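User: Sequence for Helix-hairpin-helix domain-containing protein below. Tokens please.
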Amino acid sequence: MLHGGWLSASGQEEEHPVEMRQEQSVSREMERTGEEQVQENDEQYQELASYARRKLNLNTADAAAMHGLGLLDGLQVDALLGYRKMLGPLVSIYELQAVPGFDLVLIRSILPYVEAGSGLEPYYTIKDYFRRGKHQLELRYSRVLELAEGYRRGGDEEVRYLGSPDKMLLRYRYRFGRYASWGLVMEKDAGEKWMKKGMPWLGDHVGFHLFLQRLGKVKTLALGDYTVNMGQGLIQWQGFAFGKTGAVMQVKRESEVLRPYASPGEFFFYRGAGMTWEKGNTSITGFVSARSLDGRLSRLEDSLSEGLYEEGTLASAGYHRTPSEIALRNAIRQYTAGTVLKWRARQGHLALNAIAHQYSHPLKKGEELYRLYAIAGQKVYNVSADHSFGWRNIHLFGETAVDGRGHPAVLQGLLAALSPKADLSLLYRYEHKAYRSMYGNSFGESSAVGNENGMYMGIQLKWGSKWLVAAYADVFRLPWLKYRVSAPAEGTDALLSLQWLPDKKSVLNVTYRYSQAPADVKEPPLKQRFVMNERRHHVSARAVLPVDERFTWNGRVQVAFGQGAESWLLYQQVQARLRKWKCSAGYTWFDTAETEGLYLAALGFPGDQSLSRFSGRGHNGYAQLLYQVSPVLTLWCRWQQSVYPGGKSNGTGLEEIGGERKTSLLLQVQFSW
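Assistant: Structure tokens for Helix-hairpin-helix domain-containing protein:
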């Protein structure tokens, strides 16, 4: 169960379902390539923290607000809306037990964030928007104590980091429930300099936003930084979203079109203005954005005009540590405009979506054969139509899209309650090999949209309130080449998960995942690469057991094998609550194949949505303290060290550290009033 009282202070150690979904959504491609997923978008965590302080009223919330919790699937939202329509507002939160599909486990998970007040939307004035909310100021500091290669290269500025190893973040945010939000974010990454001389308080990245809702017929007004989510992500989705996980009924994307952006990530957001105007069952959203993106420009000869022109490739990492990275900063200007016209029915909606981007320099797609259909040129267009309708125990959703070159993409899903104890999900997707969208992020084998066809089926079975079995099977095909797959290919992905909840606070989960994914291989003495399906088995077990009222033990085991490579990871954690103190300590042993990696969630700052990758052979330990000085002030400290026995160094490139140890210190101060 999630405890709202601690959420704003410590948070991530209570979000076990979120952690499991993050770890289960790790793709085979991430395991092979060594990608460490750092979303730097903690909007979902901030949303739950806000609802923990000012609860969501289930009698007035619409479908998008309910989905925004991240804890309800489409069938459950339909069931609650249908119950409310038939029997009127909930008299008490305990009445949720009478809603079809709402069992005790689900009710406990949402209880810290929801309430059942009156069925009338409260009336607030503009003065209320500015006076009745909560302020929060957050200061973060982190540093790797050992110096990496990038800081040790003396006076050769061309190949070293120009800033200090300190990573810092300052974030101020004011929130008044679902009605108002504004704030400021400043961040400096490790290795970066301050933005300007004489302004030591200004980080390398500065963001701001003003977001208001329910101003008469103006449903939403967004100024500054914001994100846009459309349909099922075929043409646009910048919010946090999971891939294939054991939560087989949560395969549908659902969100408000406009969302405030108050995270430190520097790429997946817009900067400008947006507004949603609503009258009756119809709403229209429009937004514009103008911002500078990092990119690499190349100057080429134009044989037709005998002049020079520049092409560019975008860079999304957001790092400005070396002269070469600084040269990428704000090199390409992006102008964006889009609109959503939505018609709401009794239990669903139909929407038309359009988005267009224009760039100051033509985008270059690269010369590799797999990039043949990549985005190129100065203009990118996409349009789509999406729908979502519920009927009895069935929920249908989907989106059909076309890009500016006429290439189609289709996604159609179905959720069905076969019985009170059995649920089914189906999802079909067809994405033309040449279909492309700039910020698409739909459900599938790859989050990038295009060059994928597939069929997914999931089933969920319940026994009483303690046992849950979930399974899915996904068969997909790649019509064209992709990175490290040099021919069209097919693949399979399947998962089986068993969960036991012996009491309110204990969780036992065992998951088996099988993947058969295409990848390039090269076998001596042959010099030519060929594509084969790599078979991989991954078994994980997870347990959360309370020792008593103050102490909780958390353990995770992961074993992966296949293609002659074996990897394993064992994680142990103990948490303790002692009055105003909350302490935890953990230890991880790992031994992975040379080209493999295993992942754990929630080993960074609270709610940062990051995954930590463990590769090689070694162990990792951490100790964490949280002290609730007062309702206004919270202090948070974490020490962490990884050890690779016998290693002469760890890390690569400018991040290489001499010796077998890597030690990190993370500090956070949070003021709330």
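The longest strand covers residues 530-546.
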